[in-house]
C-alpha cells in the first residue's frame, strides 16, 4: 500500500471512529422505553424497534410454527437476513409462543420464555439506562444518562460484523450450526482475535469451546496488545491499531457504497466472507440484485488449509471428504458410505452402509478391498508399513480387524481406523486409498439381471459345445454346473430385487448375530406391538449408540409387505417429531428394524402416572404429535397414513419431545391417490368409525385418533377408564364434549391451576379435539389445519356434537 492510499485509509478510519462516537447522541432515539415489552406474533415478524432509516429491525422472527428468534435483521430485504441474535453459551435463544422480551425499569434487557423463565439478558451493570434504540448502523444499544452505551449488540456479535463495527481482542464470531434456514445455534467454526494481535480461524470440539489448531491466520508481525478488527465499508475488514492498518482480511473496494448493504459473516461452512447487496430501489448500470453476493473471502481453500493441523473432523464431518469449488466447499461421502444427515454432512459426516468390523466375530472373507483415487485423509494413521507393495498393503489391512482403510503410495502403507478425519480431494498426492467394504454392501449395489432369452440360449449352446469335447463324467459335471449356476443366478436375482427395495434408503445392514449381541440375546424387552416385540440394545460399532430393535414376527404370511414398506418409506422420512430408523436385518427368516432409542419411554407411561405432568409440557407434546402427523400427511413425497396413532406409539426423547413411532401399520398412498380400502387396523378406542362401515380410508383416520390422544394429553387420563364403570366419565370423548358444552373445562383437567390459568388455549385444544373426533370423516379438519388451529393461527369454530352431521370444516 503506497503512502497516498495509506493516508486515505487513515482518514477513513478516523472518520468512522468519529461517526461511532457521535452516534451516541445523534442516532440514539428513545424507541424502546423502560418498562416496555414485546411478545411474538404467530406467522409474522414482530418488530419492537426500527432504525431511523428503516434498514434494520429488532424483534422476533418466526422460525417455524410456535418457535421464535430474538434478532436484528435487514428490514427491507425479503430474505430477513439476520445479523445478530440473542444467543446462550452454545445455542440461539429460541422461544415459544407466549414468551416476551422486556426492558425493565432498571435497564435490564431480558428475554423470558413462555413459563416466565429468563433465558437471555443484556445487563448494563451499574450504568443508569435511559432507553434502548436501534441505530442505522445495525447496532442495538442501551443508552445511558452519560451519553454512552451501557450495552450494545456490536460488542456481543454472533456470526456477523457490520460496517463501522469492531471486534476487540478476545472477541470472536461463531458460525451457525448448519445451512438450515431456521437453525441459528452456534456451529463448530470460530473467528477470534488473539491476545497477540493475530486474527485466526479455527474449529472447536463442538459443543464445547475447546479450540483446535487454526486453519487461517492474519500473521501480524507486530505483537501489539491493542489490536482491533474494524469493518471499513470502503476498504473491507482490517486489523487495525491506533487507527493504523496492520492487515487486510478482505480487500474489496466497492467504490461508492451509498447504495449498498454490506456484511461480513463467518458462514456455517467455516469460510469468512464479505457480502454486498444493492439496496432496494437502486439500479446500477441497468442491473438489479435480489441476493447477497460474496465479494471476498478467507481462507482460499478451506479443504486443504484445514488439514494442515489438528482440526478435529476437518472442514467436513468424520468419514467424509471436502471438495472446493471457488469459495464453496462441498462435503461428500465415499462409495458405500452414507450421510448420517443428508442436510448436514459438514457436521455429521458419513457412516458405512454396512456394519463395521468387530474383532470378536471378524472374518476377512466377508470383506473386499476397494480402491479410490484422488482423495486423501492425511491424519489419523495408527500404523505405517514400509517398504510395501500395493497387494501387500491390501492384504495387511484385510487381515487386520481394526483396519478400515489403507493408504498406499511410494512403497508406504498406512492403516487407518474409523472414524477418518480431514478428508479432501487431492489430485496430485499419487496415493491410493483402499477401503475395506463388506461383500454384502458391494453385492447390494450391483445390478444383477437374468438377461434375455437369446443371451441365455447362447450361453447354453456354448456350454453344451464345451461339454461335447470331454468325457461323460466331465459332461455330466459340466451340465450339472450349468444348471446349478442358472438356478443360483435366478435365486440371487430374486434376492437382490428384494434387497434393492430396502437398500434405497441407505440404512445400516446389520447381521442377526450383531443384533443378538447388541441386545444381549434380546434380553431387555421394551414393549410389544402388532408385528413383534421391541428390545433395548447398544451398537458398539456405531460408538456405543443405544438403540431399540424391533423383532418382527409372522412375516411369512403378510409381514414382508410391511417390512419393505418400513424400510423404503421410513428410511426417507426425516422430522424432529418422528423416530428415526437406523438400519435393518434381513437374514433368512430373521427380519428386524433398528431405531434410535427414546430414553423417556412412551407417552402412555408419561401421561398415565400418579404425578400429573406439567401443563406446558403436555402442550408441547400435543404440538409435536400434530407436527409429525402433518409432515406424514402433507409434506412427504408420498402421503403416509399411520393407522395406529395412540400414546403407546408416541415416544419421548431425552428432552420430552414427542416422536411418532411404529410405521409397521403405515399405508403408503401414491401422490394422486387419496383413498384406499384395507382391512381394519388400529387399536380399540382410537379407531375411526369408518373402519367399521366399509368406507374408504383416508388420512382422516389419523385425525380421529389424534383427537382422542389430544383429549388424553389435556386430561391426563385414558380414553376408556375402567375405574369409571357405570359413570358418565367412562368414555373420555363423550364426557369431554359434555363438559365443553357446559363450559366446565376445569373439571376435565382436574383443577390443574396451570391449565385453568391458560384458559384460552385449554378451550382451543378441547375444541380442536372435538372437531377431530367427528364421526363423519369429511367434517374433520386436515392435520395441517389442526396444527394451525392448535397454534392459534386460525380461528376455531364451535364444534358440533361428534355424532351429528353438518357442513364440514375444510
Keywords:
Agglutinin, subunit A; disordered N terminus; Hepatocyte Growth Factor; flat; 28% strand; 5-stranded antiparallel sheet; single chain; 6-stranded mixed sheet; alpha+beta; 810 residues
List low-pLDDT spans. 1-30, 446-471, 491-505, 667-680, 806-810
- Overall tally of structural domains: 6
- What would the average pLDDT be, to the nearest integer? 80
Number of strands: 45
The CATH homologous superfamily of the largest domain is named Transferase(Phosphotransferase) domain 1
Distance N to C terminus: 68 Å
What would CATH call the class of the largest domain?
Mainly Alpha
**What is the CATH topology classification name of the largest domain?**
Transferase(Phosphotransferase), domain 1
Mass-distribution shape: flat
Q: Rg from C-alpha positions?
A: 32 Å
Q: Describe it for me?
A:
With 810 residues, the chain is α+β, with helices and mostly antiparallel strands. The strands form 12 sheets. A 6-stranded mixed sheet has the order 36-40-41-39-38-37, with helices on both faces. Strands 2, 3, 4, 5 and 6 form a 5-stranded antiparallel sheet that branches. The longest helix is centred in the middle third of the chain and has 32 residues. The N terminus and C terminus are likely disordered. The chain has 6 domains: 130 residues, Agglutinin, subunit A, CATH 2.90.10; 143 residues, Agglutinin, subunit A (Orthogonal Prism); 125 residues, Hepatocyte Growth Factor (3-Layer(bba) Sandwich), CATH 3.50.4; 51 residues, no CATH class; 89 residues, Phosphorylase Kinase, domain 1; 188 residues, Orthogonal Bundle (Transferase(Phosphotransferase), domain 1), CATH 1.10.510.10. Helix 11 packs antiparallel against helix 17. It is flat, with a radius of gyration of 32 Å. The protein is built from 17 helices and 45 strands.
